[in-house]
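Troubleshooting: if your tokenizer reports a length mismatch, compare against these two reference records.
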Amino acid sequence: MGVNGSVLAIDAGNSKTDVALIGEDGTVLSTARGGGFQPPVVGIGTAVDVLGSAVERVLVSAGADAGSVAHVSACLANADLPVEEEQLTEALHARGWGRTVEVRNDTFAILRAGADEPRGVAVVCGAGINCVGMTPDGRTARFPAIGRISGDWGGGSGLSEEAMWFASRAEDGRGEPTELARTLPAHFGLGSMYALIEALHLGRIASERRHELSPVLFTTAAAGDAVARGLVDRLAEEVVALSSVALSRLGLLDEAVPVVLGGSVLAARHPRLDDRIGELLAVRAPKAVVRVVKEAPVLGAGLLGLDHTGAAPEVHARLRTQYV
């Protein structure tokens, strides 16, 4: 007789997928890593096939019976709208990996990994930016988070574009002076913004490498450049705007709840950004407690799964100890 798993936890980002099979007592029975999850690029079926490869390895490694899993808790990138979550829930349920399936946007995994209970708000700033909130009674707050058309500003990609814009205008005289006009092209060994623009436009520097300019922006800001510092301050304002609106929607604005920060930009702990977020949040939500999540997001997916199954607090605690 095979092993029975209580929760199959899936955290799938654009670049990688982590899967964990969790037993009824909170013990991690097996884990696997797979490729990125990009249904807008390859289609839902092919994207779920990528998950399936990692799921199969987890089940085989644990010696689990097919269909023995009680619940699938999947936190997925590109599940930005409720209709997308519904479509992906149907797709995962059809695979028969568990008796019940719940799909959430992957930002919920960050929130649950960084919170002691399913209560609080998370802001994630990696390539893009997103924010979600939740309460134990199932209420949530969220934003579409699909780019400028949904009102988004920030994220590593957005910051890089903004830095390029200001640096280009500084070099040709349309804008105010900024050291970004020197530091951005210098990152690629180039002597001018014109050379950088040409290299990006003609493909001599891959477009995907633009994200490398976000850390350059923070370094330039730390050196005192006014334009760069202004962009860092604006990101802090956006993080606080997202989190305070989410807290307000959930009626948590005046309560001591975590505001969990995650993603490569926020996890880098840039001093000016951290300080400014703290200052602004102290005004907008003075009782909020800022936490930078260090745990793997798949832990959050697992904890959400245990929430769903009604597992005891000690089961949650046992799972958490395995991701310290």
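Reference record two:
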Amino acid sequence: MVDTVTRKPSEARQRLLDTASGIFYRDGIHSVGVDRVILEAGVTRATFYRHFPGKEDLVLAYLQAEDDSLRGQFAAASGLGLDPDGLLEAIIQAIADDVSRNHTRGCPFINASAEYPDAQSPVRLTVASHRTWFRGQLRDALEAAGRDDAEERAGALVLLRDAALVGGYLDGPDTIRATYLRTARQVSGLG
């Protein structure tokens, strides 16, 4: 018999993930031990290992949560019924807002990659999968808007997002926001 009930993640698992996500993003991954996550999440060691067989599993869940959040944002924007240019503008604005509000310490995927240099590690493969999806979403939006060289433009927009996230952290988001918006609009054919 197939279980058709969608199960909500346990409260303890979600608390572990939320706690780890904040700490990993703020302080780095390798510098944070499992004991700190357990302590700050207010769970037992047994609870931690029931949900995550090891720290890397928690790291992968953290990156998956970041990926899920961005996918949700794309889905929400696509559901607004915007014309193709309006969708491109919404994507560009959302990235600028993300740099200013949510990811003020750089890109969680870039940060994780810096700590996991092996390109074949599960962490780096997760990051690569996210980046492939993200580039594809941008390419599809550009194609829908009738832009030539959509693949190249999508690559440029990924690069601009990377630069905005890193530049926002190093120089402050207000410093890079206008430049990012102007350049992303030019690349996407909006301005």
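Descriptive notes for reference record two:
- The radius of gyration is 18 Å.
- The mean pLDDT is 94.
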